[in-house]
Specification:
By secondary structure, the protein is an alpha+beta fold. The chain is built from six helices and 16 strands. The strands form four sheets. Strands 13-12-11-14-16-15 form a six-stranded mixed beta sheet, with helices on both faces. A five-stranded antiparallel beta sheet has the order 9-3-5-6-10, with no helix packed on it. The chain has a three-stranded antiparallel beta sheet with strand order 2-1-4, with no helix packed on it.
């Protein structure tokens, strides 16, 4: 099968023909991958943002959709021919050992889930069955962007009806934070980005106010629109300098102090996908 292989950091991926394991181990599932997403995590792996990679060469991808081809011993959550979402976060099922593939004379490493390959041996708890009439082109969004964005709203910020939020960066995760905030009847929902087309999409996803940070002052406008405590979220999907600048503005204007009864704290997502400043209760 064909796969995109990370052979060397800061270099293009290599498309190669690799062989899958001959037998599935306990808790493993063989999936034919139809669609895959790509996010900052994979780009970071390729560019080496965390330093040298001791697992090279290896496969990539942690969000996708596909069809179950075969299940290994002990697997009960899915069966052959099921349509599934592949996701990075653990779900229901067994936590198997990661597979290894063969690329000529070389061994190719892989994690518990990969999606930059036509066939993937994944852990049972990294796939979730979906209805067969669900659009498989959209399904990869549930492998990362949707669940991460809604997770920030529900689990991290614990946003309630009528509370306010500012989302800095209207990318894949930011848009789903906006969507989640809208589902929770937050108000106002302020979207901040560098690009007008992203802000237009943010409105469709539920933003009540938009700010282009190239042209407008984020904190000044946000404070004018708000008469209550505020939640600030910044995602890594945009220009990092702009995100850091926004946090500096927040600090400089006293958002992290008790000024005007605004009491905030900072939260950093464990995966480094997003940072969140939200109010104490």
């Amino acid at each position: 099968m064909k796969a995109a292989i990370l052979v060397e950091q800061k270099k293009p991926l290599v498309i190669g023909e690799i062989n899958i394991p001959t037998e599935l181990e306990y808790g493993q599932v063989l999936v034919q991958v139809y669609y895959s997403g790509i996010c900052g995590s994979q780009l970071g792996e390729i560019s080496g943002v965390k330093g040298p990679d001791k697992f090279l060469p290896h496969l990539l991808g942690h969000e996708g959709s596909g069809r179950v081809v075969k299940v290994g011993p002990g697997v009960k959550q899915v069966q052959a021919e099921d349509h599934v979402v592949l996701h990075w976060r653990k779900g229901i099922g067994l936590d198997s050992s990661p597979p290894t593939y063969q690329w000529g004379s070389k061994k190719v490493n892989a994690g518990f889930v990969t999606t930059f390959n036509e066939l993937a041996v994944v852990s049972e708890n990294r796939i979730t069955p979906i209805p067969k009439d669900f659009d498989l082109k959209l399904a990869p969004l549930f492998g990362c962007a949707v669940t991460t964005g809604l997770g920030v709203v529900v689990n991290n910020a614990e946003l309630k009806i009528g509370e306010s939020i500012v989302v800095i960066g209207a990318g894949g995760i930011g848009l789903n934070i906006i969507q989640g905030a809208s589902m929770h009847s937050a108000y106002p929902i302020i979207a901040v980005d560098l690009f007008d087309d992203k802000l237009e999409l943010a409105i469709k996803m539920g933003a009540t106010h938009i700010i282009n940070s190239k042209k407008q002052k984020v904190v000044e406008i946000s404070r004018r629109e708000l008469d209550k405590q505020i939640a600030f979220q910044a995602q890594r999907n945009g220009t990092e300098i702009k995100v850091r600048t926004s946090f500096q503005e927040v600090t400089n204007t006293g958002i992290r102090t008790n000024e005007e009864n605004i009491d905030c704290k900072i939260f950093v997502d464990a995966r480094g996908v997003s940072s969140l400043i939200h109010k104490d209760r």
